[in-house]
Amino acid sequence: MIKQIIFAISFALLSVNSQAEEMSYEADVKGMVCAFCAYNVSKNISSLPGVDVDSVNVDLKGGHVAFNSSQAVSEDKLAALFTKSGFTVSNLKKTKLVTAGKQLEDPMLLLAIDVNSDKAEQYDSIFEAVGNIAASTPSRLVVTAPPGYEDRLLKPILKGRQQDIKVRYVSGKSAKIRVRLFEY
Questions:
Q1: pTM of this prediction?
Q2: Is the confidence at residue 21, as pLDDT, over 60?
Q3: Whose CB has fewer CB within 10 Å in the chain, the N or C terminal residue?
Q4: Is 43 in a helix, a strand, or coil?
């Protein structure tokens, strides 16, 4: 009886460890034509349970996406996520993520802007300039603003660009808009 209990506990521990394994995913995405499309693809993938938001990388020109997840992601699950958006996902490849010995560096803050949300329109030209910088350098943009500001703020930043811009939008509780540009 004791051997059976030990076996059951060992099996349960092995199952938990195998489920916690982080995987790297790559796929092809068709239908992206601008930076806003790439942003929407990134946002959709980031919404999946277990996805490391900072790992999501969308290549607009190449039509590819890559991300890491601690939970399994199937091609059917990705396809269903994009059906309503007009994008198609194919050729999903999954590989075990090897993190041993890998040191992650903190990204360097290049630019920080804080403004009151009631004055957002006055800063459209500045947001557009930030988009120009983000499109021309290897960087990641993090925009935090009150709920309902996402499209309003991202339009001048992304503005129909044909270049990749890595953007993460965070809906915050403050009345402030925070724009942070990080080098990576």
A1: 0.76
A2: yes
A3: N
A4: helix
